[in-house]
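A reminder from the course coordinator: this example appears on the midterm review sheet, so study it carefully.

Given structure:
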């Protein structure tokens, strides 16, 4: 049986390796939409980039309430679910900083600048999710 993670365990779990998150948003007609995202943390907040014209960006623009799930699919299995409020930010300097960090995390330090420049353009947005609730479980199958 699993157990709840401490705050430090949760942050370490979210930042371990290159796990992707699954972002849940709500479409205009109320249907759910889920998309994988690359992300990083700003304290407890989740930060990611997305294209201005993506379904997730449009959904967040209408309804900022989101859910994010990150899981470990290997035994003993663990997960973090984050419920929160998303804010779209369009500051070019912030986009470059975060896109570079996120690019470095997922593609390696040698490609960080490349991904930073690619994702800090006008057609991309920076999304900052402020958590309202965490649901965590470590060692689900223990």
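Designed residues:
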């Amino acid at each position: 049986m699993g157990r709840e993670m401490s705050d430090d365990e949760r942050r370490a779990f979210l930042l371990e390796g290159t796990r992707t998150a699954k972002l849940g948003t709500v479409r205009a007609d109320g249907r759910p939409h889920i998309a994988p995202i690359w992300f990083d943390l700003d304290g407890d907040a989740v930060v990611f980039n997305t294209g201005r014209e993506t379904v997730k960006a449009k959904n967040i623009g209408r309804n900022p309430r989101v859910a994010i799930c990150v899981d470990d699919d290997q035994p003993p299995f663990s997960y973090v679910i984050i419920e929160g409020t998303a804010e779209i930010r369009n500051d070019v300097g912030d986009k470059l900083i975060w896109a570079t960090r996120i690019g470095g995390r997922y593609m390696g330090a040698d490609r960080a600048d490349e991904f930073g420049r690619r994702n800090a353009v006008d057609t991309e947005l920076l999304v900052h999710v402020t958590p309202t609730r965490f649901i965590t479980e470590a060692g689900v199958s223990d």
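The beta strands are 21-26, 32-37, 40-42, 45-51, 65-72, 78-89, 124-137. The first strand starts at residue 21 and ends at 26.
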